[in-house]
Each structure stands twice: as C-alpha cells, then as structure tokens.
Amino acid sequence: MIRNIIFDMGGVLMDWNPAKLLEQRNVSGEDHDIMMRELFHETEWIAVDHGVMSEQQAVDSVCARLPQRLKPVAEDIILNWWKTPFDDMPGMEELIHSLKKNGYMIYLLSNASLRQAEYFDRLPASECFSGRITSAEVRMLKPQADIYALCLETFGLAAEECVFIDDSSMNVHAAQMAGYSGIVYHGDTEMLIEKLRGLGVRI
Prior knowledge:
Layout: E1 4-7, H1 18-24, H2 29-40, H3 44-50, H4 55-63, H5 71-80, H6 92-101, E2 105-110, H7 116-119, E3 129-134, H8 135-138, H9 145-155, E4 162-166, H10 169-177, E5 181-184, H11 189-198
Parallel strand pairs: 1-2, 1-4, 2-3, 4-5
Helix pairs in contact: 1-2, 3-4, 4-5
C-alpha cells in the first residue's frame, strides 16, 4: 500500500526553463545558443547541485569560456536565478493538498543547490511537505542509488510504500530499482492523477 508520495522539484513542482531565464535577460540568437551550451549543458551546474562546487567557482569556470559580453549574464543566472519568479506546474498545488488531506506523507527528493532552502517556501503546497532531501546538502545526486536509500533511511520509510514522481525516466527507473513505485511526469497532471489512482492512491 502506498503511504508516501515523493516529488522531484524542477519540471514537476515548478517549471524549470533555462530558455526562459535567458529570455528574461534579453539573450537571443547566437548568444542564446552559446549560453545554453556553456552554462546549462556543461558540468558546472550539476557540480553545484552535487555540492562539490561553489556558485562562485561555477561563475569563474563558466565565464572563462564565454565572450566578455555574456559573462555578466552567466554570473547573474548562477548567483540569482532562484530569485526570479517561477511558474508552478498546473494543478500540482491542488494535487498535493488533496494527497495530504487523504493522509499521505509528502516528501521532496531533488537535485538542487544549497539555495533551495531559500526558495523552498515558494514551491506549491510547500507547507504540506514532511521532509526534503536536496542533493547539494547530502552530496549525492539522482540517479545514484545511495540517494534513494538515504531518503528511506532519513524519514524511516519502506520502499514498497513509496511512489516517486520525476520528469526524468532515468531517475524514476533508479527509484524503481531501489524498490519504490515510480511515475514519469510529462507535465500532464491529470494523467499523473490517473497513474497514482492506478497504484491505489486516493485522490
């Protein structure tokens, strides 16, 4: 029986959209392509989420590859992106409140930087969460098996009583290998609700 619902953050609770961050800073054309490649598709962002690189180290490393005109933009995004208003995924706040009302325990398991603590209360239905694990705080990343084991150990959960929801099929597969039920979320909350009901979850 499912008793615990464990959510990823970016792409599940909030709309994580690097292109929008660039658009908000008037970065377009060739500069947009450069920033997508050098900032979001290189290793520094993951290293910050892993807790093995500071934000300033990431700024220095990324900016070393960028033309001068883009260095201030990269620095601003790395240091301040989390201050930018972000959109909730449609219907997610209502879903979490319904799950909580029906007696389920709600947790967060997210690849995110240490900054997450500073914007966690802006996430939909954040008051419903009984606990959270952030990759940078524990220096583990999904889909590493250790972080799923740590989640169970930290909150005293049984894997067979948990369902994990993530927008990454790789992360969901790793959770399933750890004994969780898993659902890949593609942005369709109504479909997610149907899949949860298929696991016997009351909504």
